[in-house]
Amino acid sequence: MGPAGLSVGWYLALAVALFAVGGVGLLVRRNPLVMFMCVELMLNAVNVAFVALGAGLNDVGGQIAVFFVLVVAATEVVIGLALVVAINRRRAGATADDLTTLKG
Amino acid sequence: MLDAAWLICAFPLAGFVLLVLFGRRLGEPAAGWLATAAMTGAFAAAAAVFFALMSRDAADRRFVVTLFEWIPAGDFAVDAGLLIDPLSVTMALFVTGVGALIHVYAIGYMHGDGDFAKFFTYLNLFAFSMLVLVLGDNLVLTFLGWEGVGACSYLLISFWFSDEANAAAGKKAFITNRVGDWGFMLAIFWCFAALGSVRYLDLFGVAGSLSSTTATVIVVLLFAAAAGKSAQLPLFIWLPDAMAGPTPVSALIHAATMVTAGVYLLVRVNPLIAAADSWAPELIAWAGAGTALFAAAAATAQNDIKKVLAYSTVSQLGYMMLAVGSGAYVAAVFHMVTHAFFKALLFLGAGSVIHALHHKQDMRGYGALRAAMPITAGTFIVGWLAIAGVPPFAGFWSKDEILAHAWDHSVALWLVGIVTAVLTAFYMSRLVFMTFFGQSRHAVAAGIASGDGSASDVDVGVGSGSEPHEPPHEPSALMTAPLVVLAGAAAVAGFINLPFSSELHFLGDWLAPSLFGNEAHLASGAATQWLLAVVSLAGAALGIAVAAAVYLRQRLPARRFERPAAARAFYFDELWTRFVGGPGRRGFEAVAAFDAGVIDGAVNGVGRSVRAAAVTLRRAQSGFVRSYALLTAAGAVALLVWFLIRASV
Question: Is the minimum CB–CB distance between A26 and chain B shorter than 8 Å?
Answer without folding.
Answer: yes
